[in-house]
């Protein structure tokens, strides 16, 4: 039997991968984050599947359910919002499953920042403007940030930022970033990307805080900061350039 950590996507039920949907449809037990899982997604579960909302469960209770289902001979779908590789708390679950001798696999999903960028209609890596992306958060009622992983340190590179779990501290974010990006740096806030309640705010660093407060956005938002958000005059990528030598083609192995 296997526990499948499945990236459920950013909110829209149809943004789960085909692999994730098919696994969900065959698992006898499904654990899901209640407030973040659309009902339409759970409709893919077998009719007789046991569905467990993890919103009010502790880590030990969640792992207990996973282990018990495995011992009872069930494959388990453990839905994770977005993609399991970031801010999903699967590392500690996998560590405990290793200790219990329970097999698991990870199925990727669409992360919130990717869905938000799609809603903005923006590529986050633009030739000569920005070729890197830092995905980070700020310290709140959560695990402490590692030493050195500060907004100021990331901002010193001038790279594009995707800041999660920070909308309630928007003033702090602006204060730390202003000396590095300047007040005219483009900013976008995407609330509930891909979901029915989605909202998008666009502005500049010096004025984004009042916009966020006026809109009443206080959760489930990604903050983007960087010149790529308003880039217009940039060279075409070399990838499709007519001047590129295509005599040596890369063949799939």
From TrEMBL:
Keywords: Cobalamin biosynthesis, Methyltransferase, S-adenosyl-L-methionine, Transferase. The keyword S-adenosyl-L-methionine applies. It comes from the Bacteria. CDD domains: Precorrin-4_C11-MT. Gene3D superfamilies: Cobalt-precorrin-4 Transmethylase, Domain 1 (3.40.1010.10), Methyltransferase, Cobalt-precorrin-4 Transmethylase, Domain 2 (3.30.950.10). It holds the Pfam family TP_methylase. Residues 2-206 form the Tetrapyrrole methylase domain. Pathway: Cofactor biosynthesis; adenosylcobalamin biosynthesis. The keyword S-adenosyl-L-methionine applies. InterPro entries: 4pyrrol_Mease, 4pyrrol_Methylase_sf, 4pyrrole_Mease_sub1, 4pyrrole_Mease_sub2, Cbl_synth_CobM/CibF, Siro_Cobalamin_biosynth, Uropor_MeTrfase_CS. Belongs to the precorrin methyltransferase family. This is Precorrin-4 C(11)-methyltransferase.
